[in-house]
Amino acid sequence: IWNQLMEDAFYNESSEHKLDELHKMWVDKLTQLSQNVTSAMEPWQRLALESLLTIEVHARDVIKDLLDKKIENSDDFEWTRHLRYNFDDIRDTVMIRQNNSVFEYGFEYLGSTSRLVVTPLTDRCFLTLTTALHLHLGGAPGGPAGTGKTETVKDLSKGFGKQCVVFNCSEGLDFKMLARFFSGLTQSGSWCCFDEFNRIDLEVLSVVAQQLQILKRAKDAHLSRCVFEGHEIRVNPTCGFFITMNPGYAGRVELPDNLKSLFRPVAMTLPDFGLIIEVILFSEGFLLGGVLSSKLVQLYQLSSRQLSQQHHYDFGLRAIKAVLHVAGEMRRNRQLYRHIDDTTLLLQAVFDASIPKFIAEDVPLFMGIVEDLFPNYDRVKEDTLLLRTAIKDVLKEQLLLVNEAQINKTLQLYNTLLVRHGVMQVGGTSGGKTTSRTILAHALAKIANTQPLFNQNAPPSVS
């Protein structure tokens, strides 16, 4: 629908006026959608709505960009470089277009999944990967960890309506295993992203180049079947092979030249954190996303520079996204946080996610950075009286000292467990790691009036 409306605006005599009207309509539509995010709904419905918001925000930004650059022609590269969809009456299916590349939509059921925030870097990566698919080549995003290489490939597959399998490569892979992979992908028409592809041994990569060359020739000749590794297989031209590489890491090898020629490289750098945070905040129901995103980026950048260097510290995009999703959950909890403004709510999510992992010396430094960026902020007074009382009772029952620091650390462990799939407790010997975990288990069991159920294994028994 968006593509059709844009094409109609370009063909109109007053295209600039039409694009301006379209931009206003999209802003109103987004405002209405963002207000619905915080309403009560099923988890899959909320996920679908957040994904829709993420996609529509990109559509709004594209219209704004075209207006700023005064683009009035539908053949202009500034418009054709974006991923577009239209219904083809002759083929009776949905077609995907980007620049000179044209593909059929896959129509595979992928369920309600989250979508990636499209930044200028993502746009350039999409353009390179779709051109590679058009030429029957593979795509090879490369760059440091945390730049979104694998996620970009996965999101492009969602945009194509295709299943994408992510496989983590290691030194133990041989050419026979990879041949079975390629055979299955070619026959099913699926996509696969081989993560850390340059960890595979050089001897294996040389054989892989020959295998991929056979499949490329079959697709170039539009063959329906071909002989691959001694077996005749069906060729589905919609299959896709992608690899990601982390340069400069130990144990990585340089790809052979005959393999490099079969993949189009994409250099991935650090993404635009501000834009990503702004869109995620907007999709979580925060209307002041622009102001808050810039301050949050500064907060994490200053923290990474000024706080001590610890192995378990993470100030990257993954940590920021975890904070944003916690803030979204708090925003939707109307019973506790309905009178709290966006800034205070976001700061509370930052505290809940960050304070527990900081060592004691770094907490005052972090609070100082927060006070500089967010002056006159008010911390949310959480209702933890019931759990705090239960923790004190358990400490007394186990003949332990009722220490406020121990109670606070146990509460932090509880808050972390609410938002994380797994938790790693870090600290020196006799620091209270096992004790805090045991106290929390007994306290929660006391509140629920049940017996605590948990297993504790010593490291020797695990190994």
Describe what you observe in this structure.
This protein has 463 residues and is mainly α. 54% of the residues lie in helices and 10% in strands. It has 19 helices and 10 strands. Helix 1 runs antiparallel to helix 2 (15-36), helix 10 crosses helix 11 (289-306) and helix 17 (404-419) packs across helix 18 (433-448). The longest helix is centred in the first third of the chain and has 26 residues, at 43-68. The protein is globular. The relative contact order is 0.07.
Give the secondary structure arrangement, pairings included.
Elements: H1 2-11, H2 15-36, H3 43-68, H4 77-80, E1 84-88, E2 93-98, E3 101-104, H5 120-134, E4 138-142, H6 149-160, E5 164-168, H7 175-188, E6 191-195, H8 202-220, E7 225-228, E8 231-234, E9 240-243, H9 257-260, E10 263-267, H10 273-283, H11 289-306, H12 317-332, H13 334-337, H14 342-354, H15 362-373, H16 385-397, H17 404-419, H18 433-448, H19 459-462
Parallel strand pairs: 4-10, 5-6, 6-9
Antiparallel strand pairs: 1-2, 2-3, 7-8
